Amino acid sequence: MGGVTHLIVFLSMFSAITLMSEAQYLLAVTKDEPSRQYYTTVYIGSAAMTSPVNLLIDLGTNLTWLNCRKIKSLSTLGLVTCKSSTCKSIPGNGCDRNTCLYRQPRPLGKNTVVTTGRVVQDNATIFTTEGGQPVHIAPSRRFTFSCAVDKYLQGMAPPIAGVLALSPGEFPFWRQMTSAFNVIPKFSLCLPSSRYGYFFMGTPSLGGKKTVPMTSTTLKIDSGKYLISVRSIYVDGVPLTLDPSLLEGGAQLSTVVPFTVLQTDIYNALAQGRLRIEIGMFEFPVSTAPFHYCFEQGASGRNMDVSVMEIGLPGNGKEVKWRFHCKNTVERVLETLICLAFVDGGKKPNESMVIGTHQLQDYLVEFDLSTTQMALCDPLILHNTNCST
Ligand SMILES: *[C@@H]1O[C@H](CO)[C@@H](O)[C@H](O)[C@H]1NC(C)=O
Ligand SMILES: *[C@@H]1O[C@H](CO)[C@@H](O)[C@H](O)[C@H]1NC(C)=O
Ligand SMILES: *[C@@H]1O[C@H](CO)[C@@H](O)[C@H](O)[C@H]1NC(C)=O
Fold this sequence. Notes:
- This protein is mostly beta strands.
- The protein folds into two domains: 2-201, Acid Proteases (Cathepsin D, subunit A, domain 1, Beta Barrel); 214-383, Acid Proteases (Cathepsin D, subunit A, domain 1, Beta Barrel).
- The chain has helices at 3-13, 85-88, 173-180, 264-274, 326-329, 357-360; strands at residues 24-32, 37-44, 51-58, 65-67, 78-79, 93-96, 99-104, 115-125, 127-129, 136-137, 141-148, 162-165, 186-190, 196-202, 214-222, 225-228, 232-235, 238-239, 251-253, 260-262, 277-278, 286-288, 291-296, 305-306, 309-314, 319-324, 330-334, 337-340, 342-344, 353-355, 364-368, 373-377.
- The strands form four sheets. It has a six-stranded mixed β-barrel. A four-stranded antiparallel beta sheet has the order 18-17-25-26.
- The longest helix has 11 residues, at 3-13.
- The relative contact order is 0.16.
């Protein structure tokens, strides 16, 4: 089965999208259900001989790395030399004889052994929708990444063979592609709660979903991370009483953390203080790792009623609110057990808030590096749609 067949299978998946007029580049996002990991497929090699490679989507990685054994044709693969300007601008670079090396941090944590891999270039193929034409294959472009071996993929779901770099740095995938295609340096994610979602580069368009209102806030870029400022956290419109220093560092955005991690005091204020989850007659909290607040659904069959949680962000001259839908606030762990879908990060975590994928899913989140703004849509669920294709 050649590369072209894979590309056509991909295109048919998106045939239902209503097309808009602005140039944009598109990849599918897949949710691996058991692991809750999100990945996309990059087609590596010349268009006639592409190898699809599934890569974990990571906002914190500076250079894509992958198991290069997945690349079937080596005709367009080349090594990057130490003296090249490409090598010099890669953070964490090194040199072995004349081959550029990259230190590959592991986004899934735990294993602290950092490995190095050779930096290489190959062509990558992505898709475009333009001028109302059906999605088609864009001409392939040179793409710089590094090679890792199989055993460094520990902790990743079986279909995944590497990490797609989406950091704010100089060599993430989105920056290489927007620069190669000469489009505005921005990308957007619509993480699905199930099946397939979207990853756009350039201006996003989701057909009918484009009419959903978007709000913007300033992105703060710090040590290769994306952060947003948080002014307050509201439950049913009332701000939580928190030591203001807890919110000073802002909230980091992550596509590898499954549930938002909160510093202990923030977590307790949310869980013990105000947030109501009413689902039945028995509301004694029980604990099921990694959650502390879970509720057994009573026999009454009453509909679930969950407080509205919002975070207040600095907008254009006024505060804007990011409203989490009930589905982003709780998680059904068992048939009758519903948990507050946030995790206690301890008293002194590096970041007092890390917003994870359960809270990001079913929003279109745009990272605009031309203005250093993040734009966020209303919960799509309130508009009777979602991120799934
Ligand atoms: C690889 O990408 C470059 C542009 O970056 C292009 O000029 C070249 O034709 C591509 N090669 C193949 C085999 O597709
Ligand atoms: C990414 O690069 C930045 C510098 O540009 C650095 O501060 C950060 O630690 C790097 N991230 C990782 C995960 O290596
Ligand atoms: C906190 O940051 C330090 C230094 O960057 C790192 O070694 C450590 O693993 C981080 N801890 C957590 C819980 O992420």
